[in-house]
Amino acid sequence: MPDSKTEPTPPTQGSIPKRWGIGLNVAFQVLLVLALFFGVNRISYRYHTRWDLSPQQSYTLSSSTLNYVSKLPKDVFIANVFARDAKIFTDVQALLEEYRINGRGRIKLRSIDPLRDIERAEELKAETGLPLDQNGIVIKVGNLTRFIREEEMVIRDTGTETTRAIKAFRGEDAVTSALINLVEGGERKFYLVVGKGSRTETALTDAMTALGELGRQQNFQLLPVNLAEISRIPEDADGLLLVGIRYDLSEREIAMIKTFWEGKRAGLLVMMDPAGETPRLHAFLGLNGVIPREDRVLYAESTGSGTRKEFSVQGLFDNESPITQPLAASTVTLPGQSQSLDVRFDDEYLQNQSITVNPLIGASDRYWGEKNYLEDLPVVDEEDTRQPIYLAASVERGSVADPRLRVDSCRMVVVGNASMLDKKSALAVNRDFVASSLNWIINRDRLSGTPPKLKHSYRIQLNPRQNELIFWITTIAMPGLVLGLGMLVWASRRAA
């Protein structure tokens, strides 16, 4: 009977090279995977995109700050001198990282804990000459240094010194203002014309408060000036503001403004009160291509409940002007009453005088400029102004078309409304438009866009039942669900 056992077949000579081939193939694959891994990491390190997924975009710099830091003309050094256990340390560090990332290599950032990094803190003291005896931020540009204290970056709630909780974080506001101050070497100055009446004392106070707040953010100083008490506009004036004046300027005062406007670099912001009697001011504006009309922009209709007449105007921003381009996606509401503006942007005489006029805000389609606005139900007729209705315009004199030859020019913004800064009715976009206009008229194009916003702190009050429900969900239900899924997976594997 033949033997059923078979002898094992000895390996052939070709099997060894085959094993070597498999090994080399595996090694090559491993090297390729490693190369792809390090290559992808290298590329993602140099070219990456960051998203701010917070509901209020709390970790994103405002458009005006982004425009400014992306075009810095000088190198900037920033030191975060905060103890790690400070309440706002995380917010400050995240904020300064945004400045560094968007500074295009111009901003160098260092974080120093004065309680742990004593040697580095002493070196910074010796280098800057600052005491650094409290938490804050050191900003250095050339030979100029600024120390921003912790209290300058927060707004606290009312209460005693020891119990005042932080209500809002205004770090970007403080850092951007200090940065502008150091780069420009000082504050700009705006003079607000007073002594010419106003709608109410409250309206004038609201305007001064709002402009003062913008000045603190945008690094300019707001000063009142009575034209009747001076012989010329102050030489250190970067801009002159005429906000809601009711009484007309005298011939001498108009001559002062003309002299200021015809200087090498002048900025004017004029917010017209439609109820004001200012024919000389109207004539001055008309010579520069913007003529305020004697009307009111409104919308009127007859409804089942009676007549509806709406003076509050819904407007749209121009998407080409550097003033309003960052705001073009937003709509603006002009409260109170507004008058339309005749904008002569195609006037040949103005073009020969190197004066360029552009509309900034236009009323939406349902509004018109009504002459007989006191009627109960006004209707559009021949003497009224039809679309397009312009509510704000810009004027630039002495501009150069070629950006390579750009020099500072004289600039003016005219608005047919004086209520944009009223505390009770003003929207954030109104404030943003005024801030962008102020920066534009003093040739600060790098600060165009929306200014910094406050980062508010919110407290959620939960009742005992809600606290108990959160406890059961987070401590019992969610861990139990994970445990149950794990047991199901284990049981299915045991059955297999």
Task: Report a brief summary of the structure.
By secondary structure, this protein is of the alpha+beta class. 34% of the residues lie in helices and 22% in strands.
Describe the structure.
It is a single chain. This protein has 2 domains: 63-179, Glutaredoxin (3-Layer(aba) Sandwich); 187-441, 3-Layer(aba) Sandwich (Rossmann fold), CATH 3.40.50.880. 34% of the residues lie in helices and 22% in strands. It is built from 11 helices and 21 strands. The protein has helices spanning 15-46, 63-69, 89-102, 118-128, 171-184, 201-218, 251-261, 279-287, 348-352, 428-441, 464-495, and strands at 76-81, 107-112, 136-141, 144-149, 154-156, 166-169, 188-193, 220-225, 239-243, 267-271, 290-292, 296-303, 306-310, 313-317, 331-334, 341-343, 355-363, 368-370, 390-397, 410-415, 455-456. Helix 3 links the parallel strand 1 (76-81) and strand 2. The longest helix is centred in the first third of the chain and has 32 residues, at 15-46. The chain is globular, with a radius of gyration of 33 Å.
Question: Main traits of this protein?
Answer:
11 helices; 22% strand; alpha+beta; Glutaredoxin; single chain; Rossmann fold; globular; 496 residues; 9-stranded mixed sheet; 4-stranded mixed sheet
Mean pLDDT: 84
Number of helices: 11
State the share of residues found in helices, binned by percent: 25-40%
Instruction: Tally the structural domains.
Output: 2
Q: Do you know the CATH architecture of the largest domain?
A: 3-Layer(aba) Sandwich
Head-to-tail CA distance between termini: 44 Å
Instruction: Assign the CATH class of the largest domain.
Output: Alpha Beta
State the fourth-level CATH superfamily of the largest domain. Class I glutamine amidotransferase (GATase) domain
Kindly provide the radius of gyration, computed on alpha-carbon positions and rounded to a whole number of angstroms: 33 Å
* Overall number of strands: 21
Major sheet: 9 strands, mixed
Order of strands, main sheet, comes to 8-7-9-10-20-19-17-14-15
Strand content: 15-25%
Helix and strand composition category: alpha+beta
Give the CA-based shape: globular
Low-confidence stretches: none
CATH fold call of the largest domain: Rossmann fold
